[in-house]
Amino acid sequence: MSTPRRPVGLITAVFLGTFMALLDMSVVNVALPDMQTHLHARITDIQWVVDGYTLCLSAFMLTGGALGDRFGRKKVFLTGLALFTLSSVLCAVAPNTATLVIGRLLQGTGASTVTPGALSLLAQGFPDQAKRARMIGLWGACSALAVVLGPLLGGALTDSVGWPAIFLINVPLGIIALTAALKGITESADPEHAATDPVGQVLGIVWLAALTYAVNEAGRDGWTATQNLVLFAVAAAAFVAFVAVERRVPRAMLPVSLFGNQRFVITNIASFMLGFGAYGTFYLLSLYLQQVQGTSAAMTGVKFLPYSAAIAIGSTQAGKLTARFGPRGVMVAGYGLVSVGLLGLLTLTPSTGYGQVGVLFAVLGLGMGLGIAPTNAAAMAAVPRERSGAAASTVNATRQVGTALGIAVLGSLLNARAEISVARDLARSGSALDPGERGSAAHLIVTQHGAAPSHLGLNLRAAQRYFGSGFVDGLHTSLLVAGVATALATVAVLLRLRTPKAAPQPQRPPQQAREEGQITA
Questions:
Q1: How far apart are CA 377 and CA 370, in angstroms?
Q2: How far apart, in whole angstroms, are the C-alpha atoms of residue 327 and residue 383?
Q3: pLDDT tens, residue by residue, 357-410
Q4: Using 50, 70 and 90 to split pLDDT, how confident is the model at 432?
Q5: Alpha helix segments (H runs only) across 293-387
Q6: What's the CA gap between 465 and 392, in Å, rounded?
Q7: For residues 139 and 118, is the Cβ–Cβ distance under 8 A?
Q8: Which of 12-16, 123-127, 427-431, 454-458 is predicted most confidently?
Q9: What letter would DSSP give residue 297?
Q10: CA angle at residue 287 from 475 to 107, to 5 degrees?
């Protein structure tokens, strides 16, 4: 009997497509100052280069998975990948901020079908759960590495070539992924189990978009700003309507019955907490290295290499371990290590040496690597294969919403605690400012990253010392919240996630097995 060829086309397409989509979540951050200078943009406008992508990625993710199940997973994946590649060109040649933001909105829309589509294609292409778990482990490594390598690659390309290069690099990668997908993936769809569900689609987009936008803005304007309160209300109302519609339509975009499955619920809660705790603090740790320790953007990427390498090692091993032992034990180990890493970072001070930082980064990265793959595998195992698109989009959407909420909530906690700490230090210094003036001065020192307001009579070194101490105090508060949240997810997985052993599969003729694989080299 001949040995089946390796599904090179499938693997190349889904890994490369996912890498591009997730890389663009973080690659732009270090290039924002260069973009602002060359496009003569305001900081409030340039921030939409980041937020526009996140908004569309979150808002359309549930829709992207459902469309794949309905109209064809390969077709929808190719459409999203092509849109992402073409919109990358638009971003690179953008003559002004408005054009760049439009390009980023289109990129996020394309990415919203690529990420869940890739996971769904892996579920279809590898029906054997052990092989699927190993591939999802490798895919998880690719996903996580894309996020953490973004600042390193973005800094290098911006410094050496210019900011358009961070978008142009997607063009050859996109062409390779599209070619591999066209040749290496055979179409699969389950229209009898999925519907267009237009009302559910619209409501899903509205509540995710309103929630993501409100969370992003709350991190800057405050949680009680009128606009944000209205957006939170719209998100809540749309979510309630979405659930009501999905309960009644005969073939829903996201069957509410899936959430009657305890394994599926626990997996999505864990995915949310991983996004909130681990991904949410990544941004804060980057600020710690740059704003407190004075590390350049490019060198910050280098200092995250232990983090990246540990994610790669953990994800690779997670696939193998999940295939052998099931997802629960691997998830407990991964989430537990994330908790240990986050709580271990409470030992940071403004002058902590990189040796200690690097070790803690490695612990955190290893936990993330061990946690991502079994979480995705558990979500796929909890539902029938014909709903793989819905499951993939849901578990990715919960992690994405958790990430957005983590960045906003943890960032707000950090800033609030930092201002309290700086005001306390000003009082201890013998400053003649009254409490109200100290509060205003502390706000300026924190928001201006250690600049010394002229009316304080402080030299720059003193202001920077207060800022560094206050930032670390705030970081400790955020890390404590993130660590406890991830620890609670670990306990929930340990106590409540029960994955039954798969029933033995009947022997199938070689021809049938090849057809069910739905892949070619």
A1: 12
A2: 15
A3: 999 999 999 999 899 888 988 888 877 766 667 777 788 788 888 887 887 788
A4: low
A5: 297-303, 305-325, 327-344, 354-381
A6: 46
A7: yes
A8: 12-16
A9: H
A10: 120
Residue bearing the bigger pLDDT, 94 or 388: 94
Residue 249: which residues within 8 A CB-CB, separation 6 or more? 195, 197, 199, 200
Q: CA torsion sign, 176 to 182 to 188 to 194?
A: positive
User: Which residues contact residue 302 at a Cβ distance below 8 angstroms, ignoring those fewer than 6 apart?
Assistant: 152
User: What pLDDT does residue 233 have?
Assistant: 95
- Which residues are CB-neighbours of 56 under 8 A, at least 6 positions away? 105, 106, 107, 108, 109, 111, 112
Q: At what angle do helices 388-428 and 354-381 cross, to 10 degrees?
A: 150
Element (H, E) at 125: helix 97-125
Residues 296 and 298: their CA atoms lie apart, in Å, by 6
Would you give the end-to-end CA distance of the chain in angstroms? 18
Sequence-ordered list of residues with C-beta below 8 angstroms from that of 95, at least 6 positions apart, any chain: none
pLDDT > 50? residue 87: yes
The half-sphere exposure of 469 on its side-chain side, counting CA atoms within 13 A, is 14
pTM: 0.77
Say if residues 114 and 17 touch (Cβ distance below 8 Å): yes
DSSP reduced 3-state for 185: strand
As given in the structure block, the two tokens for residue 320 are 């193998």
Asked whether 207 and 132 are in contact (CB, 8 A), the reply is no
- 128 phi/psi in degrees, rounded to 5: -70, 125
**Residue 27: helix, strand or coil by DSSP?**
coil
Tokens read off for 294: 């004075």
Residue 127: alpha-carbon gap to chain centroid? 26
For 264-290, the pLDDT digits (tens) are 899 999 999 998 998 888 878 888 988
| 437-480 pLDDT, tens digit each | 777 888 888 877 777 666 666 677 888 888 899 999 999 999 99
Can you state the angle between helices 354-381 and 129-160, rounded to 10 degrees? Answer: 140
Both tokens of residue 79?
């459409």
Q: Which amino acid is at 474?
A: G
- Asked whether the beta carbons of 374 and 330 are under 8 A apart, the reply is yes
Residue 279 makes CB contacts below 8 A (sequence gap 6+) with: 147, 399, 402, 403, 406, 407
pLDDT at 296: 77
Residue at 301: amino acid letter: G
